[in-house]
């Protein structure tokens, strides 16, 4: 695709209301859990992004009948043991979540599966899932580097008590999905609390999954009778974050983001923005399986921030945006304990540093984070920006470019469709709606 011309500094800011697309993590889980439940699951406000469509195709290839009606999906689930072997390798595309959750799900199924993925996914570590699953009796073979392709030889699994070595919702979820198929209860102890959408959704579908008051210890009873449900997917905080940041750093802005998931395991970005002095008003709407709210945000000057390991899981996908916010603040910010960023679609510590430097931002790479110098104005050194095929880098740089009056280009803009196919048109709508406010 040809490079995309970036929007320039909007003199009158961003204005208007936006209904965010469905949450990516929750859309994946609704598909997978629907597939192993009995009967019909209706998924409303499903996120039709490339990553979620990979999960959708995977469950179809595993023998599940799926109906698609615009943003709603209907899954005809076949129960915990109703999946059938796929006739070809399952293509995970670019999606780490699909891969790792499916590894847990297929580890206990009585057939063989092979998982493949694109060039970015092929570099991402999979032993973090295959090794703890092996402790439950799983037989999973990765490539020698611990990556895709992955071969799963489904086995009867046994319950486990396991302490996770990294804070990862994907690893935790893979173990929970495997634990449903084990011969005895399992206990999974997290390093730090991570997003808990799998636990919440499984409870809704009828599983006995308990989270202890320490928020770290999860017990899973095997062989639940899962019943199909209607799931309304809330707006994605990780997508809302681009506009929260845009309105905060562009003078005169005043926008409202509607129906956003404010699950505490995902709101690190709101916490960080508030700490930095952002002008944010949250109107809580409802709290069912997942809490949702409308969020109003206006421009505000920013102070620097320090984030360390304990802060990271609730803000993991928004850290590129934190680097951008920090670059607009009045002093030095630091992010540490974020080495996991090096294992995402790109090495996000390296790509954030490389791309923000093109805009004149001064920052230093650490093995596990970044030190960022805030400046009131930047001196552009390279007008051709690049997503590196990483959706979150492409979107973050599009927001960063709004601070500039120069002609800037973005290479590989199509990467945004991995999580947010309508990103550019949604942003454009907030740049046009001055008179509607
Ligand atoms: O479970 C999930 O849906 C996700 C968990 C996180 O990954 P890790 O579990 O690798 O931290 C996050 O970065 C990813 O975008 C989605
Ligand atoms: C890391 C991400 O997703 P995944 O791990 O599913 O590829 C992301 O969406 O930023």
UniProtKB/TrEMBL annotation:
Subunit structure, as described in the record: Monomer.
Organism annotation: Liquorilactobacillus aquaticus DSM 21051
UniProt EC number: 2.5.1.19
Function, as annotated: Catalyzes the transfer of the enolpyruvyl moiety of phosphoenolpyruvate (PEP) to the 5-hydroxyl of shikimate-3-phosphate (S3P) to produce enolpyruvyl shikimate-3-phosphate and inorganic phosphate.
Gene3D superfamilies in the record: Enolpyruvate transferase domain
Reaction catalyzed: 3-phosphoshikimate + phosphoenolpyruvate = 5-O-(1-carboxyvinyl)-3-phosphoshikimate + phosphate
A GO molecular-function descriptor: 3-phosphoshikimate 1-carboxyvinyltransferase activity
Binding-site list for phosphoenolpyruvate: 24, 96, 124, 170, 348, 392
Catalytic site positions: 317
Annotated GO biological process: amino acid biosynthetic process; aromatic amino acid family biosynthetic process; chorismate biosynthetic process
Enzyme class at the top of the EC tree: transferase
Location of the protein in the cell: Cytoplasm
Residues binding 3-phosphoshikimate, per UniProt: 24-25, 29, 168, 170, 317, 344
Protein name (record): 3-phosphoshikimate 1-carboxyvinyltransferase
Pathway: Metabolic intermediate biosynthesis; chorismate biosynthesis; chorismate from D-erythrose 4-phosphate and phosphoenolpyruvate: step 6/7
Gene behind this protein: aroA
NCBIfam families named in the record: aroA
Pfam families on file: EPSP_synthase
Domain of life: Bacteria
């Amino acid at each position: 695709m040809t490079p995309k011309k970036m929007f320039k500094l909007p003199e009158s800011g961003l204005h208007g209301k936006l209904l965010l697309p469905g949450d990516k993590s929750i859309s994946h889980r609704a598909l997978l859990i629907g597939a192993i439940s009995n009967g019909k699951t209706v998924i409303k406000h499903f996120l039709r992004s490339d990553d979620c469509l990979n999960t959708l195709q995977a469950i179809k290839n595993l023998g599940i009948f799926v109906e698609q009606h615009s943003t709603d999906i209907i899954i005809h689930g076949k129960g915990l043991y109703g999946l059938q072997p796929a006739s070809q390798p399952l293509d995970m595309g670019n999606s780490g979540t699909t891969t790792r959750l499916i590894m847990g799900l297929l580890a206990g199924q009585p057939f063989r599966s092979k998982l493949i993925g694109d060039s970015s996914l092929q570099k991402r570590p999979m032993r973090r899932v295959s090794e703890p699953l092996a402790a439950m009796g799983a037989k999973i073979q990765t490539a020698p580097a611990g990556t895709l392709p992955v071969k799963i030889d489904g086995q009867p699994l046994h319950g486990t008590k396991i302490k996770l070595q990294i804070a990862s919702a994907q690893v935790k979820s893979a173990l929970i999905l495997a634990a449903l198929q084990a011969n005895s209860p399992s206990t999974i102890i997290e390093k730090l609390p991570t997003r808990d959408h799998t636990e919440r959704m499984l409870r809704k579908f009828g599983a006995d999954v308990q989270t202890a008051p320490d928020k770290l210890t999860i017990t899973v009873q095997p062989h639940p009778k899962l019943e199909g449900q209607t799931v309304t997917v809330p707006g994605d905080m990780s997508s809302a974050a681009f506009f929260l940041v845009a309105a905060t750093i562009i003078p005169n802005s005043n926008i409202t983001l509607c129906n956003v998931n404010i699950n505490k395991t995902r709101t690190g970005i709101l916490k960080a923005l508030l700490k930095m002095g952002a002008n944010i008003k949250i109107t809580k709407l409802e709290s069912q399986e997942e809490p949702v709210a409308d969020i109003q945000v206006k421009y505000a000057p920013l102070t620097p921030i320090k984030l360390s390991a304990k802060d990271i899981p609730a803000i993991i996908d928004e850290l590129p945006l934190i680097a951008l916010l920090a670059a607009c603040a009045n002093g030095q910010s630091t992010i540490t304990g974020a080495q996991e960023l090096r294992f995402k679609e790109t090495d996000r510590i390296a790509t954030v540093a490389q791309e923000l430097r093109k805009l004149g931002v001064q920052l230093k790479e650490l093995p596990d984070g970044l030190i960022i110098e805030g400046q009131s104005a930047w001196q552009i050194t390279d007008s051709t920006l690049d997503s590196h095929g990483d959706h979150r880098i492409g979107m973050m740089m599009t927001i960063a470019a709004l601070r500039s009056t120069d002609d800037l280009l973005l290479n590989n803009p199509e990467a945004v469709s991995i999580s947010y196919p309508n990103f550019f048109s949604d942003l454009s709508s907030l740049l046009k709606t001055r008179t509607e406010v």
